[in-house]
Specification:
heterodimer, A: alpha+beta, 2 domains, six-stranded mixed beta sheet, four-stranded antiparallel beta sheet, 17% strand, B: alpha/beta, Rossmann fold, five-stranded parallel beta sheet, 35% helix
């Protein structure tokens, strides 16, 4: 009866327009937040190096060929790069050569080769830092293997009719790393095992401690020049790293940069969509709140009379608050269903285009829905309270 | 003294500018010509108007200090009112108008309401929208609605202005019975006619 009294004779057209506005805004907001998160997560887990991480070196020019300019990084240059606002971390990459071979009878293929190894700090790796440690006397050396290396190995195995090795199987194989002095007189072997794979770096990665040990023991007189840096950019700021690299004559493998560049562009696009959607949701909420004010104004006589015959103003506030909370709840529910349908369609589209992103729902999307609902409820409660108590 | 009436000369025995006590369980008549402040008086003691000087107390407490919680409680179980402009909901039926009030205190059953309507000879209006009733019929609905709650005081602001003598008598009889039954008092404002009703004392304006 109270509902019939207070919510009759509404301008349903205005209400429907406000609901459609809120529905579109929320749908786009949730969708764009979901895909922004998924784009940021894209590539994570498949590579032990973070998705925004690249290895840079100075461009080799004619001047550097004739030793007129340096190709190594000094302490000051490294520190400057570390302090850039769009760089989350930067670390020198130290390199040396060693002999790498299989040390496991379970694998029916023999191989051994001189390889180039480089160091990487645990902070660049997407793994438990305790697994990326080595100290003198340790039984095993953890290594990260370039995927290209495994591909080459499998190509070789296929040509010899030997079973190929998957990534998970490769992690269970024991390898041997043999350190040797420049003149070949000193040799020392260590067992190694793979803890992850990378597509970003073409060399085998080893812990810094093992590199220090090897260099100190086998090449104590060699000067260590830093010719490469490992850099991680902050999310969505890869464009600034590229700009800095161009301005300072730095380069990196294009393939390494593609994913970061793509993520940065798509992330920025989604951020723009999020911004527009947030404004749309805010405007739609504003229209709904104004509609509530209009409804209260239209029902001033009823509101005033109800309070005169003994209705408590807070009961009337509750009526308006609950009514509009249900309306917005329905909008949110419809928007969520639409988002799920849109997501299925977009996921298929991405999949057809060869982009396999995680299809699980992002908690941030739910968070955005909850935040929009809480904001609306708070606004509607305060508006209803102000409108009703003003008539008391 | 209500601010709109401050510029008017009031008699020495007028309640405006004097102290007056509404004794509980008494029947009080407020008989004055138009514009003397009968509705204003009813509005002040019912907490609808605050544009006055002086102090109004209820059970010893200044009514200006009452919170919405307190006024709601007072209007629900201590003071009931029949407004001069009736304050019915024209788009709701007689039944809905009565039940909307009744659901606050669950005073009467639907059957009792129908009996009261019958007593006032409008039982056939139960399902009719109030906006379609005559003024006299609306006044009778408003009277029944005001009785549908417990009260210590009933304020009647010219409740019979559109009723003939026979209907006014029936309404008075119903009001008297209900008020006596609760040991309550009432304040009846009227434009000159006392409707032959016995009252305990009269207030001048």
């Amino acid at each position: 009866m109270l509902n019939k009294l207070l919510f009759r004779n509404q301008d349903s057209r205005q209400l429907v327009i406000a609901m459609i506005g809120a529905f579109l805004g929320i749908t786009f907001l949730v969708t764009s937040i979901h895909y922004l998160i998924k784009v940021q997560e894209f590539g994570e887990g498949s590579d032990v190096l973070g998705p925004n991480t690249i290895v840079v070196q100075k461009k080799v020019t004619e001047a550097s060929v004739f030793n007129l300019s340096k190709t190594d990084f000094g302490e000051e240059a490294i520190e400057e790069i570390r302090n850039l606002p769009f760089v989350s971390r930067a670390q020198p990459v130290i390199s040396r050569g060693l002999y790498f071979e299989k040390d496991d009878n379970k694998v029916p293929v023999d191989f051994g080769t001189d390889v180039f190894v480089q160091t990487v700090d645990a902070e660049f790796l997407d793994m438990d830092p305790n697994k990326w440690k080595w100290k003198e006397g340790a039984h095993h050396v953890p290594i990260v293997l370039p995927r290209q290396f495994l591909v080459m190995l499998n190509t070789y195995a296929a040509s010899r009719n030997i079973p190929q090795v998957s990534e998970s199987l490769a992690k269970r194989i024991r390898f041997k790393l043999t350190l040797h002095s420049t003149d070949g007189k000193m040799k020392e072997s260590h067992e190694a095992y793979i803890v992850g794979f990378t597509s970003s770096v073409p060399s085998i990665l080893i812990p810094q401690e093992f590199m220090n040990y090897a260099n100190t023991k086998f090449s104590p007189d060699e000067e260590q020049k830093v010719t490469q840096l490992m850099i991680s950019s902050k999310d969505g700021q890869f464009g600034k790293v590229e700009e800095y690299m161009n301005e300072h004559g730095l380069e990196s493998a294009e393939s390494e940069m593609d994913l970061s560049r793509l993520k940065s562009i798509v992330g920025t696009l989604f951020l723009v969509v999020i911004g527009i959607s947030t404004i749309a949701v805010f405007v739609a909420i504003l229209v709904l709140i104004q509609y509530m004010q209009l409804l209260i104004t239209r029902n001033l006589y009823e509101v005033r009379t109800l309070m005169r015959i003994g209705y408590h103003p807070k009961d009337l506030v509750k009526k308006f608050f609950v009514y509009f909370s249900i309306i917005f709840g329905v909008v949110i529910a419809i928007a969520f269903v639409s988002f799920v349908i849109l997501k299925i369609w977009l996921d298929d589209m991405f999949s057809d285009g060869g982009v396999y992103i995680d299809t699980n729902l992002s908690m941030w999307s739910f968070g955005a829905l909850a935040l929009a609902y809480v904001f609306f409820m708070l606004s509607s409660f305060l508006t209803a309270r102000k409108g009703i108590y003003a008539e008391y | 003294m209500p601010e709109p009436l401050a510029s008017i000369n009031h008699g020495e025995d007028s309640i405006w500018g004097n102290s007056v006590d509404l004794k509980s369980a008494h029947r009080i008549m407020l008989n004055a010509s138009s514009g003397k402040g009968k509705t204003t008086f009813a509005g002040v003691i019912y907490g609808l108007r605050h544009d006055y000087t002086g102090t109004v107390t209820f059970d010893g407490v200044n009514i200006r200090s009452f919170t919405p919680d307190q006024w709601t409680e007072i209007r629900k179980i201590k003071i009931s009112a029949i407004f001069q402009d009736l304050q019915l909901f024209p788009d709701l039926t007689v039944k809905e108008n009565l039940l909307l009030k009744n659901q606050l205190t669950d005073t009467y059953s639907e059957m009792e309401f129908k009996q009261m309507l019958q007593q006032l000879e409008i039982e056939n209006k139960w399902e009719q929208e109030c906006g379609l009733l005559s003024m006299g019929q609306r006044q009778r609905v408003a009277i029944i609605r005001a009785l549908a709650q417990p009260y210590e005081w009933l304020i009647l602001d010219e409740p019979f202005s559109h009723l003939d003598v026979a209907n006014a008598d029936r309404c008075l009889s119903m009001i008297h019975e209900r008020t006596m039954e609760q040991g309550a008092g009432f304040v009846l404002t009227s434009l000159g006619s006392a409707h032959d009703y016995e009252y305990d004392y009269e207030l001048k304006l």
